[in-house]
Structures are given as C-alpha cells and as structure tokens.
C-alpha cells in the first residue's frame, strides 16, 4: 500500500477514533529573541496582570531593583522554588538583560483587587498615610517617600515603586522580612524597618497604598529626586 493510501485510510479511521497518523509535524522554529526567552516569566508575571498577592507587577520597575531580586533568588536570600529553579544557573549578564527588558515595559495597571486593605478603617488608613508620608520618628521608622520617591513610583537604579501593589502582597512581603524568608544584601534596610513595624502598622501601610490610583504615565524617578544619604544604609542601593 502506498504512503498516500495509508494516509487516506488513517484519515478516514481517525474520524472514528481508531487511527492516529504516525507522521509527526515538524517542530515550530521559534525566534531567538529576548522576548521569546522571557515567555516563562510572563506565564506568571503576565502582561495583562492580575494584581494578586503572589505574582507582583515587575513591569516598569527599575532595572537595578529587578536584577537584585533575581540575584537574591539565585543566591538564596529570597525563597520561592519556581523562581530559584528559573534563575539558578543564569549568569549575571543574562539576569541584567532580563531586568533591563522588564524595566522598559509599561502595560496599564490592572484594576485594584479587593484584599485585606478593602476593610481598613478610617483610622487605619490615616495611620498608613502618616507612616508613608511622614514616618514615625518615635519608632525610628522613616517615611516610605524618603526612599521610594514622593510619588511612590520608585527611584532608579534600584528602589522599587509601591503604587499598584495589592495590600495582601505588601503584607506578605513584610511578613517575609520579619520571618527572614526574604532578605537582601547587607545591610538589609527593609528587614530593619519591617521589624520596627507592628502588625497594625503594616496593615495600615498596605491598606493605604492599595487605595492609591496609579498614574499610567508615571515612571521611576531619578536618584536626585530623594535626599541622600538614605535614612538607613541599604546594601541593595548603590552609594551616590
């Protein structure tokens, strides 16, 4: 029987579910571009972001910050098995390339998700605003804006924005710092700040931040937009 006859017979029987052709299609040739290589990242950190507590927005964050986090996962300062698996064998140059790619992406912010911040009281929101904008000198807690910028959109090269993050994600990260599940290059300024905040203060900050409407046109500011030196020494932020 000719190959053509086999294919015809198989096609007819396939309708009844009896025959599966053995002629496999040739694998698709994918373009060797960085966009194609980071497809695995986009599977979780989707372009159409969900804004949930597990997969934060990485688009538009400063490249230095994104690079630091990739290194932290690779070197065990942050713990999430999927991320560790993804970056475990990647060299610094490749991590910088990935970080630079995502720093240039600016998709629209997703709609605000109802989280723990949705039920924050008026008093809690007022406390959160005060901590974000003024800090608490009595507890030696600096204002968030002192490092993350007056618009809270981050500062290049290595300080992330806080706008657009769900309250549950912010709560989870403070918990990770407190429990030493998340660490950064020493001195770890955020771990120090996290340990000066009690649970009510953390809920206040995350609740107030989650209710701020992001400006779609906002971009991370320049380092000269904040006062130097920073209120605390931060190993992740290069000295001026």
Short description:
By secondary structure, the protein is mainly alpha-helical. The chain has helices at 3-15, 34-37, 39-42, 63-74, 81-87, 92-103, 122-133, 145-148, 167-178, 189-196, 199-210.
How does the helix and strand content classify structurally? mainly alpha
Share in β-strands? under 5%
How far is the first residue's CA from the last residue's CA? 78 Å
As a whole number of angstroms, the C-alpha radius of gyration is 23 Å
Layout of secondary structure:
Layout: H1 3-15, H2 34-37, H3 39-42, H4 63-74, H5 81-87, H6 92-103, H7 122-133, H8 145-148, H9 167-178, H10 189-196, H11 199-210
Tell me about this structure.
- This protein has 240 residues and is mostly helical.
- Helix content is 42%, strand content 0%.
- α4 (63-74) crosses α5 (81-87), α9 (167-178) packs across α10 (189-196) and α9 runs antiparallel to α11 (199-210).
- It is globular and about 65 Å long.
- The chain starts with a helix and ends in a 30-residue tail after the last helix.
- The model is unreliable at 2-17 (pLDDT under 50).
């Amino acid at each position: 029987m000719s190959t053509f006859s086999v294919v015809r017979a198989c096609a007819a029987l396939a309708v009844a579910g009896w025959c599966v052709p053995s002629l496999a299609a040739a694998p698709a040739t994918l373009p060797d571009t960085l966009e194609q290589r980071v497809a695995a990242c986009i599977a979780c950190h989707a372009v159409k972001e969900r804004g949930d507590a597990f997969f934060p927005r990485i688009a538009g964050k400063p490249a230095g910050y994104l690079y630091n986090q990739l290194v932290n996962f690779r070197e065990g300062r942050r713990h999430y098995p999927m991320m560790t698996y993804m970056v475990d064998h990647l060299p610094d140059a490749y991590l910088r390339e990935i970080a630079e790619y995502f720093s240039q992406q600016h998709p629209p912010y997703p709609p605000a998700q109802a989280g723990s911040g949705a039920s924050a009281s008026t008093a809690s929101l007022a406390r959160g605003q005060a901590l974000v904008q003024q800090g608490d000198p009595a507890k030696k807690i600096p204002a968030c804006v002192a490092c993350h910028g007056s618009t809270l959109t981050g500062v290049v090269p290595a300080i992330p924005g806080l706008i657009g993050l769900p309250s549950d994600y912010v709560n989870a990260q403070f918990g990770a710092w407190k429990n030493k599940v998340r660490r950064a290059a020493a001195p770890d300024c955020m771990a120090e700040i996290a340990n000066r905040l009690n649970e009510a203060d953390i809920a206040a900050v995350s609740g107030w931040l989650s209710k701020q409407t992001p400006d779609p046109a906002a971009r991370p500011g320049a380092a000269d937009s904040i006062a130097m030196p920073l209120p605390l020494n931060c190993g992740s932020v290069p000295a001026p």
